[in-house]
Fold these 2 entries.
Entry 1:
Amino acid sequence: MLNKVDKIINDFLFDLENDRILNLYKEISSGKKLRAKLILKIAGDTEDACFLAAIVEMIQIASLLHDDVIDDSDTRRGRSSINAIFGNKIAIMLGDILYSKAFYELNSLPNEVSKIISNSVTKLSIGELLDVELSNKFNPDKDKYFDMIYKKTASLIEASSYAAAYIGKKDTHKFALYGKNLGLAFQIIDDILDITMDSKTLGKPALSDFKEGKTTLPYIILYEALNEEEKKKLVSFFKKMLNTEEKEWILYKMKEYNVIKKSLSIVEEFAKSALLSIKEYKNNDLEKIITDMVKREY
Ligand code: FPP
Ligand code: MG
């Protein structure tokens, strides 16, 4: 099924009659295609569903090309990022090409679908802006974190689920809720893995979020648990290149206060809510997407 989606993306790019774009696109490592999988599982393997899945994957790839420029990241999915290989200008323009072509193709789908998807891309961009602004200083505010990850990550997954349900003639609101909670759980897991996984498995340096200025959920939970002196110490580590001893202090304190366990129980809550909203459909594949995600290695 995903092969069909890859073929549609290649056909879209072929339409552009520019070999350079095809060659640059080949340098992007393909990811898990969570959004495409989700769309096909919800809507079924129809032509419109594959078309939507290809469009959403192109938007996702475009946003990551821009995100790696914004975050100054050299790696993506274990390979050199496009900005690292070809520079920021090429990465931004390739993102713009994928993104505008996706929007052009989106016009062929029902109005309800194109409205919901395009609106979510505005949210996604606002989420990225919030992420950048939140990284100016240590953020102890959970609500700000949840609002940012909802917009940055969950909004496109929510919209993809809604649109897929629309195409598959299912309850759009129930599936939107499923997608929203799945998206929130997904981003928190990503934020946990940055702390618990080694850099080789992660495909990027471990513990890099805090150095980049991202006060993710585990750091907010840790901050809440620390005493005043320790709080100051944690804040002083924000955005710094930490030595081994400093990194170990963070990990030790996270263990002492059960931070990862507490973060995972929030993931479980979102996962449970996601499953609850689509319970009546008894769709094992959609349930498996959630359980597989929650069981990713910590
Ligand atoms: C990854 O976050 C980034 C996103 C989920 C969204 C990025 C959105 C934009 C750049 C705006 C939209 C732009 C277009 C062209 C549609 P992260 O940095 O937390 O994750 P990472 O560790 O995978 O980099
Ligand atoms: Mg990034």
Entry 2:
Amino acid sequence: MDTVTTIDAVRSKVRAWRAAGLQVAFVPTMGNLHAGHISLLAAARDRGDRVVASVFVNPLQFGPSEDFTRYPRTPVEDERLLVEARCDLLFAPEVEEIYPAGGKQATLVSVRGLSEILCGQFRPGHFDGVATVVAKLFGIVAPDVAVFGEKDYQQLLVVRRMALDLSLPVEIVGAPTVRASDGLALSSRNRYLSAEERARAPLIYQTLRETASAIGAGNSDVRTLERDGLAALERAGMKPDYFSIRTAADLSEPDAAGTQLVVLTAVRMGRARLIDNLRARRREGAPEG
Ligand code: PAF
């Protein structure tokens, strides 16, 4: 694996691969890699002749009171895991390489609507930061395929919509969430949990599962299911930002005819803010609640 830090170095590598007719698959990350990221690399390997990963903690997607400075950075371990996952090229730029104008980036990519709901309500500007950096990385790497985790479901839809609206020639692939054996979705932010919080955290997935199976069993009283989910998390001492049932395709409020749904939540526990989601299938013809 080659590790490069400049845009020019990425471009010349990828140009040579393209000239040789090779397909390029890309996995953007913020580092501190775990088994969830490794599964994204495996999905990229399946789809590309060459795999590029980026490790870049993107300041533009963190709010002023968020965890940009303390976000875990583990570059040596990341490089080792990427070699093991048979990544061909690691792009690990400094902030100045991506934002040469410092904080004065005048151009932002904003996926309106989709970026303002759910997590967007609690993290204003977050998805503009994500869409902007992902658009820049796509411009740098020029991949045929890019892989994103379904754990960040709203992010996946934001990126998909951005690629569609900007006619970017890249296929966006979603890869399934990887979970610990007790159900907790793997996340770099799990390391902010104390031992006691970590022991309680699987309740997030349990609550999503209970809600998704109630929907599957024919309960279509969305408001009550959302209220019950929120209350279950609160009873366990968590502070949920939201617990919401939405249409899987576009995160709109489900209508009577919609069958493909997704249950999403964001929960604050101690120093951590954790997100998770689960797809749910509503039986056709179930009455609206
Ligand atoms: O999911 C992430 O790690 C980040 O939001 C991403 C997509 C790498 C953009 O910074």
